[in-house]
Task: structure prediction
Amino acid sequence: MQVTISARHGHLSDASRKKIEAKVSRLTRIFDRLTSIIITIDLEHEEQPAVDLQVASEHKHDFVATDRSASLMGSIDTVVHRMESQLRKYKDKIQHRHRGTGEHISATPAPEEELDKENTE
Result:
């Protein structure tokens, strides 16, 4: 999996990049079929940096989460939480679709029910 961190209108320190990468790498624990993660941090408004998180998976279009708040790490936490929610919802949807309900309703009675009817008559 490839993690790309880019900053617009400013520069991020190596320590900040490592913290962000550590937080974002937790997403693979939820959904292991992720192919790339792209984080774009817009520092044009220093008092409210904007964070965009794009995650690509194998058989699905990109997942996207954005946030703008007073602190950079607060925005990162919010974006990661939103992405976790999206990935969990998608994973549950896939698992529910492939599992089915397990109950099959048939129009014909089971052989045991037919034997019970014959014995009571």
Notes: Residues 72-99 form the longest helix (28 residues). Helices lie at 14-24, 27-30, 72-99, 111-120. The beta strands are 2-8, 34-42, 50-57, 60-68.
